[in-house]
Amino acid sequence: MPWEKTNNRHPLNRTLRALGLNPSLHVLIASLGEQKLTHYRAGAPVSEIPLSWSRRPPCCTENSEGTPLGLHVVADKIGAGAPAGRVFVGRVDTGLHFSERPDAGPGQRSLVTTRILRLRGLEEGRNAGPGVDSFARFIYIHGTNRPDAWTANVSAGCLLLPDPELIRLFEAVPEGSLVWIDHRVR
What we know:
By secondary structure, this protein is mainly beta.
């Protein structure tokens, strides 16, 4: 059943109305409480993807390392064609798989891998603007070199997806697609 018809009082619908926005063709709803990201196309569910998120509580504040909540948009797509596991630093492809780095192994810190969907917050004062800006905080949807720690939530605020699902999502979802991040369990 399409998300926008399931509950007119869904916080995403209320936020879209408040901002005077319509849903994009593709909408991603990340439920942190359920650790899943649901991809909708034209209001109908396309896929559900397991996700991992921040090691800290959800938070929009700069330097909190918490995953920001609310309405975002896919502002940039980075990494098209890169092999799974490729490491990105500062949104630049390093040319290395995470296993080829000098720090490879079980103690390797969490890295940005495979693909990047960079998010921009759309709610001024919540996830956009000084002190809370998701874009300035470099909040992404990306792959991970730490599938061993998947359920431990190892990111510094980003949403992490398994590589095969991330690559499919990256190919399917254009820039400008809306992303709703919520901490509640539906």
